[in-house]
Structure formats: C-alpha cells, structure tokens
Design brief:
Shape: globular
Strand content: 5-15%
Number of strands: 3
Distance between the termini: 23 Å
Number of helices: 4
Radius of gyration: 13 Å
Low-confidence stretches: none
CATH architecture: 3-Layer(aba) Sandwich
Largest sheet: 3 strands, parallel
Number of domains: 1
Strand order of the largest sheet: 1-2-3
CATH class: Alpha Beta
CATH superfamily: HAD superfamily/HAD-like
CATH topology: Rossmann fold
Helix content: 25-40%
C-alpha cells in the first residue's frame, strides 16, 4: 500500500461512479497524466467500460479465467498479475 500512497481514488470523489469515466479522468488529472497515456487494470465490466470511455487502455484482471465479459468491453485480459510485464513492457 505504501507504493500507492496519495494515489488511491474513490467513486465518492466524483459526480458519477463507474461505468461513467469520471473516476478515471479525475485520477489522471490528479496525476497530471493524459488519459490516452494511461493504462487501467480492472476486474469488472463496469470498470472496463468507464476506463474505455475515458480514452484509456484497459487490462482486465480475471484470475478465475472468466475474462470474456471484460474482453467484450474492450479489455486485454490477464489471469495473473505476473502477466503485467508483457503489456506494460
């Protein structure tokens, strides 16, 4: 959690929660990052839809091998966090 100090955002901080893009755009703004330069790791279809609506790339985390719904929303799916090194370089 120390690595994420000051970089954790909640739907309570924005007018609309997922699947609206508000939370993702807010987080990018707080970190001075352009949305098209962001990569989101999400585990829900609503989260994938919100991140895509914000113009961000999305990796869908599906550890149980159930990533079809995440892929349908536009995510590249992962079954393990160890797989992050591939898409992120």
């Amino acid at each position: 959690m120390d690595r994420f100090a000051g970089c954790i955002y909640s739907g309570d901080e924005v007018p609309q929660g997922k699947p609206a893009p508000d939370l993702f755009l807010y987080a990018a703004s707080c970190m001075s990052a352009a949305p098209n330069r962001c990569v989101v790791v999400e585990d829900s279809p609503f989260g994938v839809a919100g991140a895509r609506a914000a113009g961000m790339s999305v990796l869908g985390y599906a550890p149980e091998g159930d990533g079809e719904r995440l892929a349908e929303e536009g995510a590249t799916t992962l079954e393990s966090m160890a797989e992050l090194t591939g898409p992120l370089g």
